[in-house]
Amino acid sequence: xxxxxxxxxxxxxxxxxxxxxxxxxxxxxxxxxxxxxxxxxxxxxxxxxxxxxxxxxxxxxxxxxxxxxxxxxxxxxxxxxxxxxxxxxxxxxxxxxxxxxxxxxxxxxxxxxxxxxxxxxxxxxxxxxxxxxxxxxxxxxxxxxxxxxxxxxxxxxxxxxxxxxxxxxxxxxxxxxxxxxxxxxxxxxxxxxxxxxxxxxxxxxxxxxxxxxxxxxxxx
Length: 220
Prior knowledge:
Layout lengths: L8 H28 L4 H16 L3 E7 L5 E7 L11 E3 L3 H9 L3 E3 L22 E9 L3 E10 L7 H58 L1
Antiparallel strand pairs: 1-2, 1-6, 2-3, 4-5, 5-6
Helix pairs in contact: 1-2, 1-4, 2-4
């Protein structure tokens, strides 16, 4: 026992609360570090998924990101072995639990019997039947609005508390801010590349025209 800690039940709860607070603080520090490491959406989502499962004691985490057209969600980050499905899973807004969360901007907690929830849409490759409980929260930021949806799952039944949900919402907001900046950067890079390609095409067309005119003059 650490010095100054009580051995009474109340003291035990205090110790547990402090441990949880330390774990949450460490998670937030890691997320901030990951967000500062670079502008990529996928690396950030992958790092976030790994950190979240470790900090929340869950078994898997999925990070679904809203596409630029804001019509569907794409699995952008996941813990192993589901990281191989990144980029392959797409979910229209309004479909499945994640689609419902994205449309309504509200968390969903399912303690058990997911199949009985009309919002649940299983993906065989994600092995939903292997997991009992789940929490799904929106990832939102201002002024970017909705960025995506964050899901955690557990094999064993777990009664997620309001604090669990609030922590995931805070994490979602933190990730959303970094991802919003990453998406803006990606759009800017794509726009710059498109502009460079356009300039190259114009220069090439001008060169071809110059050669044609030179040939005409030579022939004339």
